[in-house]
Amino acid sequence: MRRVTLADVARAAGVAKATASRALSADNREVGAATRARIQEIAGEMGYRPSRVAQALRTGRFRLIVLAVPAGEPGWAEVLSGAMAEAERRGYHVLVRPIEADGSLPSQDAAELPVDGLVLVGPGRVSWGEERPRPAVVVDEDLIDPDATIVRTANWNAGHQAGRHLMRQGRNSVVVLVPEDGAGGARARAAGCQSAFAEAGRELSADRILPVGADPREAVDAAIGRGLRFDGIFGCTDRITVASLGSLRRAGWRVPEDVAVVCFGDERVAGLADPPLTVIPRPAAGLGARAVQLLARAIEGASEPPEVHELPTRLLVAASSGRHEDESRESAHA
C-alpha cells in the first residue's frame, strides 16, 4: 500500500503543503487552532506518519538519544526500561551504548552519529574528551557536579523514613549496614537514618554504623560476637540486608520478634526474603523516565540551569519489621 504523504494530507484538507506542515509540527504555532485541529484530524484518519528525515532537516534534530551505561555492571535494567518507555512516548529513538572501564564514551556517538542528547547512567567517572556533549542528563546517586543536570533518589529521605519506621515499632537500639565504599547513595541513607534518631533525642552512635564488605555476614557475625545488642537493622542495600538474616538465625534471634529489619533496594528481592522485608524501593524506572523528560526539554529549547533532581521514595511495610496500622496506611499513601 502506498505511503500517505504530506502532499496527500494537504490536498485532502484543501490547504497548501507548507500550511499542512506547520499544522502538524509540534514546534509551530503559526496556524490557527481550528485549522490545526482539522488538519491533524485528517492526517490521523489517513494514517499519515511524518518523515523523520524531513523533520530532522527542518529542525536540525534527529530525535535520537544515547543511553550510556557502565559496561559489565548490573542493576540498570529498570532505569533503562523507564528511560526507553519515556523516550518512545516522546517520539525519540534510543541507542544504548556502554561506558567503558576507563570512563570513556564511544567516540562515534558524539562525533559521527546525529545524536541530539545523552542520558549517562551512573557515570561518575566519565571522560568527556575534548568537548562535553550537550545536552546531557546524568543518573547518578553520588555525583556532585554543579555543571550537570543530575537525577537521583532522595537517599537521605529514604534513610530518614527507615529510622522513623523502626522507632515507631519501638526499636531504639538499631544498627545500620553500609557497604564499605558507601557508594550508590548508601552514605546519604545512613546519615538520614541517624538524623531521624537524633531528632527524636536518641543517639545512633558511630559504632552502630557497620561497614560491610564482600560477605555481609562477617560484619553482622562480628558485631553479635563482640556482644553488640540491637533490636533493629536498617540495611542500605537489599543484598547486605538479605545476607544479614542468616547471621540473625545463627545467633538464635527472631525476625521481627527480636530484631526488626528494614532495607533499601529492589522490592522484588525484598519480597523473596524469609520473612519478606520491609523495603524502601529505589525508584529505578522513574529515574530513567525523569532523565529523558529533562533531556527532551533541553533538546527542545528549554533554558533551565543545571540542578539536582531527587525522586521521592515510599516505605512498604512487610513482615520483617512487624506491622503498625498507622505506618502501613502512611506507607501506602507516601
Overview of the structural elements:
- By secondary structure, the protein is α/β, with parallel strands linked by helices.
- It is built from 13 helices and 11 strands.
- The strands form 2 sheets. Strands 2-1-3-4-5-11 form a 6-stranded parallel beta sheet, with helices on one face. A 5-stranded parallel beta sheet has the order 7-6-8-9-10, sandwiched between helices.
- Strand 8, helix 10 and strand 9 form a beta-alpha-beta unit.
- It is elongated, with a radius of gyration of 25 Å.
- The C terminus is likely disordered.
- Give me the secondary-structure category: alpha/beta
Helix content: 40-55%
Mean pLDDT: 84
Radius of gyration: 25 Å
Shape: elongated
Number of extended strands: 11
Uncertain parts? 56-60, 325-334
Strand content: 15-25%
Number of helices: 13
Task: Sketch the topology as an H/E string, one letter per element.
Answer: HHHHEHEHEEEHEHEHEHEHEHEH
Strand order of the largest sheet: 2-1-3-4-5-11
The first-to-last residue Cα distance is 52 Å
Main sheet: strands, sense, barrel: 6 strands, parallel
Outline of the structure:
This protein is an alpha/beta fold. It is built from 13 helices and 11 strands. Strand 8 (232-235), helix 10 (238-250) and strand 9 (260-265) form a beta-alpha-beta unit.
